Amino acid sequence: MGRARVVSTSGTADPPGVAEPLARVRRVEDLSGLMGERGRTVVVCFSGSWCGSCSLFEPTFEAVAGELADPERAFALVDTQELPALATAYAIQTVPTVVVLRDGVVVDRINGVVTARELRRRVSAGGTAGAGPTVAQ
Question: What global pTM score does this model have?
């Protein structure tokens, strides 16, 4: 199993790697761009560079992204200090928080660190764990 390649939405890699891309969202508009077609799922990990738990969880998120990303499912990282407006729009109160979106609607939310197995299960379920509010884009 390879490490996910982290790609900024401007198209430059942050660090080089293999496997599927993991977008690092740098602007609020970038997340809308990732959503693309109707029915696409976007799995977003909100974290902070200052957060120890986030540093521990990010490799797990990257690994699961490398396994599960495909044309219908994208993965992204958002630093809440860099994009506080996006964190506010998705009601992020703690980090790390993973938000699963489909058509701009929050269909699942995972607060805190979880195992790769649990993250895989929740992402693969595609939001059957519960629906959330629509967030303006």
Answer: 0.78
**Active-site residue, selected from the candidate residues 7, 34, 51, 89:** 51
Q: How far apart are CA 53 and CA 47, in angstroms?
A: 9
For the purposes of burial, counting CB atoms within 10 Å of the CB of 25, is it exposed (0-12), middle (13-18) or buried (19 or more)?
A: buried
Q: Which domains does the chain have, with CATH numbers?
A: 22-125 (3.40.30.10)
pLDDT one-digit tens code per residue, 20-36:
469 999 998 889 888 88
Summarize pLDDT for 52-87 with one digit per residue, the tens: 999 999 999 999 999 999 988 999 999 999 999 999
Q: Cβ(1)–Cβ(63) under 8 Å?
A: yes
Compute the distance between CA of residue 47 and CA of residue 3 in angstroms, rounded to an integer: 19
Catalytic, out of 35, 54, 77, 123 = 54
**Angle, alpha carbons 71-112-78 (nearest 5°):** 45
Concerning whether 45 is annotated as a catalytic residue, the answer is no
